[in-house]
Amino acid sequence: MSDNRPASGQIEHWASLIGTIAAPITVLGALLFYFGYVSSASEYAYFGINVDTIGLSTQAYIMRSPQTLLVPLLVLTLTSAGFLTLNAAVHKRITAALTHTAQVADPGASQAQRVRHIKRMVQRWRIFGLAALTVGFIMLFAYPYMRDWPLYGLVTPLLIGIGAAIIAYTSHVLRFLQSLQEHQTRAITREHGSARLVDDQAGDSLLARRTAGVFVYVMIAASVFWATATIAQWSGRGLAEYAAIHFGALPSVILDTKEQLWLHDPSVYVKTLPASAGQTFHYRYRGLRLLIVGQDRMFLVPSQWSTHDSTLIVPLDGSVRIQFQFENEVP
What we know:
Blueprint: H1 4-45, H2 58-101, H3 107-141, H4 143-146, H5 152-185, H6 192-245, E1 252-257, E2 269-272, E3 283-293, E4 297-302, E5 312-315, E6 320-324
Antiparallel strand pairs: 1-3, 1-6, 2-3, 3-4, 4-5
Helix pairs in contact: 1-2, 1-6, 2-3, 2-5, 2-6, 3-5, 5-6
């Protein structure tokens, strides 16, 4: 029995450790899949394709997400670094201001004046945050009237997220200022009855602050998620437009079919193959490019983009014959 207890304890420890590591990885994988899917859906919608008809795997969507998330990750990294620098500077300035007033001849009046000045500045920023948050929520509920605005999907979450972040940070600065004042003055009532009342009120206030803080942070997270999804859509559309301009960079395909496809694109040429014994393919098409390969089909586009073009879906079941043409460059 004594030998089994340490073994079971180790198993529980490793299981807990694996669970702690696996949970964030699962969330990260789900986010990468989502943003890869959003980007791919926007990219192939440009060519008239529903991304679900391609049949890409989960791994394929995850592999497509880093390019989409590069700009948001850089922006979040720089923003986080700037916030940490700002936060350190603000804390240092407040601490220096209160410390300086404690060393002058009449620290009470000077400290009260500096505290009022700091609180006025913080309150101005809080008003700015409330204004940004209000405008963001107005735009959110005005979606039926503003959804055609190209920047709606980015401006709205940014206003909500920035407004909520400013409100959260100004509240943090005010609490930090209050804690410094209490630490320096040490004017705390020691009576049993009044102290208990203060403790009860402080507990209620702390619960209210934590509840409000949870809502604010959820708001910020949702805004970041929304803005990132919008950037993923723009990224997919940008990739599609770039591919349409550079169709020549896509693999060149020669397509043999049994029946005529009646393609009317001027850059696609069709040739009737000579009849021979056992020949089942009668038409050869040139001027096609491979856009993407799905599970059991290929998606072909003309060599030159036009508003009248369409994407050709070719099944990989033996009903057609595919050849990939060499690049016209001598090695």
